[in-house]
Amino acid sequence: MSTIAVPAPKRKRHRIYESKGEPYFQAFLIIFFALLSVTFLYPYWHVLVNSFTTPDFASAAGFRLWPREFSTDAYKHMLSANFLWSGYKNTLIVCFLGWACSITGVVLSAYPLSKKDLPLRGLFTTIILVTMFVSGGMIPTYLLVNNTLKMRNSFFAIILPHCISTSHVIIARNYFMSLPNDLEEAATIDGANSWQVLWRIMLPLSGPILATISLWVIVSNWNAYFNCLLYITNPKKFVLQVVLRRIILTDSKEMTAASEAVANTTDTDIVTLRAASIMLATIPILCVYPFLQKYFVKGVLIGSLKG
């Protein structure tokens, strides 16, 4: 018995019709964002060029893409400063301690607040949110840190006043709330307690939000200088930003003492020193950011969706 093959019905293809002005609009967007990118990148490139040129060329006004006279005297002058490397060391210590304290405090605050069965959960959340709008002020904080806690000339005086950010707690709480409850229930059935669930289940799944908060904390501690000016009087404990500030503003022999060879061959001025100091302060952060960028975007999106 012969069979007749029935052809399969053809699927209708939905064509996307573009208006006549769509190509022009796309071209406009490309040109607009290209020019916008140039406005962001050129100031940084301008500083980089000034850091690798002579003082006369750097002081001259005008548009420039390349150094007319290549020179590394500004970097030799900065890198030979007595307190520059101690400033790097102190900043790294502050960044590490600040990151450890901040991540610990944020996780221990956000994870309990993500539980709907937490007693007085709404009250605790409200109290935490109030701190975003009301603070004790600079003078009470100074009296607390300096007189009451006796933390003058201590790195914790720089770290603890701004250790835990309310926005970080809220974003981390929202991220924990977005994780499936079935994972915690399964771990609890297997005999895991709350600490084991947090350490073995929740934290391994929280890489994006932890990387996002880590980037914020590290950048904040890297650029922080005001607390160091308030609480640190020992020059050996100055962070990098304060060291660079003193080198640029005072240019004292104590802060910029160079070797005789460098002193006899360099001729730097304030423009090239400023440019070199900006590059020395920003390059480490620029090297770290690409490794955390994908986690940064994912963590911000997920942590801001669920309230």
Task: Write up what this structure looks like.
This protein is mainly α and 307 residues long. The protein has a domain at 84-257 and 295-303: MetI-like fold. It is built from 16 helices and no strands.
SSE diagram, text form:
Blueprint: H1 22-51, H2 55-59, H3 73-79, H4 84-113, H5 121-130, H6 138-148, H7 155-159, H8 166-178, H9 181-189, H10 194-205, H11 207-223, H12 226-231, H13 240-249, H14 253-256, H15 260-265, H16 270-303
Helix pairs in contact: 1-16, 3-16, 4-8, 4-11, 4-13, 8-16, 9-10, 11-16, 13-16
In short:
By secondary structure, the protein is mainly α. Helices cover 68% and strands 0% of the residues.
Average pLDDT taken over every residue: 79
**How far is it from the N-terminal to the C-terminal residue, by CA?**
66 Å
Strand percent estimate: under 5%
The CATH topology of the domain at 84-257 and 295-303 comes to MetI-like fold
Number of strands: 0
- Count of helical regions: 16
Describe the sheet with the most strands.
Answer: none
| CATH level 1 name of the domain at 84-257 and 295-303 | Mainly Alpha
Work out the radius of gyration: 27 Å
The percentage helix is: 55-70%
What is the H/E string? HHHHHHHHHHHHHHHH
Shape: globular
| Architecture per CATH nomenclature, i.e. the level-2 architecture of the domain at 84-257 and 295-303 | Orthogonal Bundle
Name given to the CATH homologous superfamily of the domain at 84-257 and 295-303: MetI-like
Uncertain segments: 256-268, 303-307
Structural class: mainly alpha
